Each structure stands twice: as C-alpha cells, then as structure tokens.
C-alpha cells in the first residue's frame, strides 16, 4: 500500500490499480481507526486485517470515477470491536454478520447487491445497529423490509435517493427510532400508516419530498414528535389528526407549507413555525 501513515490510533492508507495487496509494513499495527483511500475498481481486503483486533472505525473512500468493488469483505466478521463503517463510492457487497456494528454510512454507493433480492437479511447482518445513513445512492428504489426488524435502530437517514419510491410498511416496528430523515427523496409518494407507532420519534425530516401528496391520519399519533422539517412540501395535505401533536415545538418549512400549518396553530399552542430566509446568489450569472 502506498503512503501509509499512522498517527496515534489512526492509520491512513492509499491503494490504486498499480499496487498489489502486499502490506507487510502494516502487519504490526493495531489502529482503532483505519482510513483507506482507494483509486481502483477492485480492492481485496488483505488477510492481515483479521489481526486488527482493536479496530473500531473503518472508513473507505474511493476517488475513482466508477464505484469500487470490495472483495474478501467477509473477513470483517472477525473484527469484533468494529463499531462504525463508512463507505463512499463503493459497490457495496452482500454483508455478512457484524453483530457489534453500531453505525453504517453509505455515500454515493451502489447498493443493489447489499439490499437487493437474495441478499442476506439486513436485520441478521446488523442486529445491533443504532444508526443507518444512506445518501446519494442513486440505485436505491426501496428499503429492505428487514430494516424494520433492527429494533435497536435510533437514527435512520435516507437522503438524496431520488429513485426511492416507498418505505417498508412495517416501519412502525422501529420502536426505538428517535430520528427519521427522508430529505430530498423526490420520488417518495407515501408515508406508511404504521409511522404512527414510532412513539419515541422526536425529529422527522421530509423536506423536498416533492411527490408526497399527504400524510397519513396516523401521523397524529407521534406523541413525542418535537421537530418537523418539511420545506418544499406545499402540496402535501395535512391530516386533522396533527392537532394531537401536543409536544410539537418547531416546524421548519417554506412559506407555502407554513400556510397549511397556520390553520392548526390555535390548537397547538406550543408550536412555532419557522421559515428560514433563503438568499439567492445570482453572481454566477455574471
């Protein structure tokens, strides 16, 4: 590997097409954080990574134009202290069981193999996951239904996935979910009725989900909802049940969406509507 640097408990490494996977100079290292910067279409995890018994965080960023494919991914099963994984511009493989993983972040990744039909149930792969972030994954059309069986999940963020058309009907099974972010999923048309079962949800973001035509009547059952972000949702019809959102403190939205909420303000005395001022910079035209 080229340009291997270790700073305290953090190890940085770079690999490209010209470099083989002989990394003998890293055999003795025991980092807690490993950052791999790739510029290759294929990368093989070396067997010596099994010896990184202290590894807690793995960050892999691919700087090539096309997603990089990871091979020998199953060796991560042996890293029992691994808590966080972040992948950027990666062809995500079918995951194996990572029982101790707490946070997974996928940015500009191809997820077909990991989330598609025939893949391992994500609830079996990450049974103790607490946070899942998926951003700019263009091939994501539906979330795997088994996500709903990851009961420890507290934060779920799916943003800028423009082909995402639906959420699992059983999303209400995520009884510990505290924050749900669905911003800029422009093809998302429906919020499942079961969302009303998310009794611990305090923050919901649906800004710029422009295809949402309405919120379900069960939306009013979100008894602990405190912050709602829904800018760019002027065409989204609100159910009358929102009058039951007595803990709702702040709604951040645009002027058109604010007009829909103003009708409910007399019944939601603690609710504040915030319309951020957006500066439009036209300097680029000159």
UniProtKB/TrEMBL annotation:
GO terms for biological process: defense response. PANTHER family: NB-ARC DOMAIN DISEASE RESISTANCE PROTEIN, PLANT BROAD-SPECTRUM MILDEW RESISTANCE PROTEIN RPW8. It holds the Pfam family LRR_1. The keyword Electron transport does not apply. InterPro entries: Leu-rich_rpt (IPR001611), LRR_dom_sf (IPR032675). It comes from Trifolium subterraneum (Subterranean clover). Transmembrane segments: none annotated. It comes from the Eukaryota. Keywords: Plant defense. This is NB-ARC domain-containing protein. The lineage of its organism: Eukaryota, Viridiplantae, Streptophyta, Embryophyta, Tracheophyta.
């Amino acid at each position: 590997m080229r340009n291997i640097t270790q700073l305290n408990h953090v190890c940085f490494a770079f690999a490209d097409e010209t470099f083989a996977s002989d990394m003998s100079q890293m055999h003795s290292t025991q980092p807690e954080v490993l950052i791999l910067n790739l510029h290759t279409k294929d990368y093989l995890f070396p067997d010596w990574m099994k010896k990184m018994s202290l590894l807690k965080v793995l960050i892999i960023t691919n700087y090539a134009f096309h997603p990089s494919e990871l091979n020998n991914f199953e060796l991560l099963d042996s890293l029992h202290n691994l808590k966080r994984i972040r992948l950027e511009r990666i062809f995500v493989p079918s995951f194996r069981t990572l029982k101790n993983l707490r946070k997974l972040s996928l940015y500009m990744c191809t997820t077909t193999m990991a989330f598609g039909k025939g893949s391992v149930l994500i609830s079996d792969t990450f049974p103790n996951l607490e946070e899942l972030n998926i951003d700019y994954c263009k091939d994501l059309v539906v979330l795997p239904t088994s996500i709903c069986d990851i009961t420890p999940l507290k934060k779920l963020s799916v943003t800028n996935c423009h082909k995402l058309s639906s959420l699992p009907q059983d999303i209400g099974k995520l009884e510990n979910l505290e924050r749900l972010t669905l911003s800029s999923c422009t093809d998302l048309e429906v919020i499942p009725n079961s969302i009303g079962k998310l009794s611990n949800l305090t923050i919901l973001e649906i800004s710029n989900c422009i295809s949402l035509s309405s919120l379900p009547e069960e939306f009013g059952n979100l008894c602990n909802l405190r912050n709602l972000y829904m800018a760019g949702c002027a065409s989204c019809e609100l159910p009358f049940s929102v009058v039951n959102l007595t803990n709702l403190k702040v709604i951040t939205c645009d002027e058109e969406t604010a007009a829909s909420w103003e009708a409910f303000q007399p019944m939601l005395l603690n609710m504040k509507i915030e319309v951020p001022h957006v500066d439009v910079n036209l300097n680029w035209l000159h």
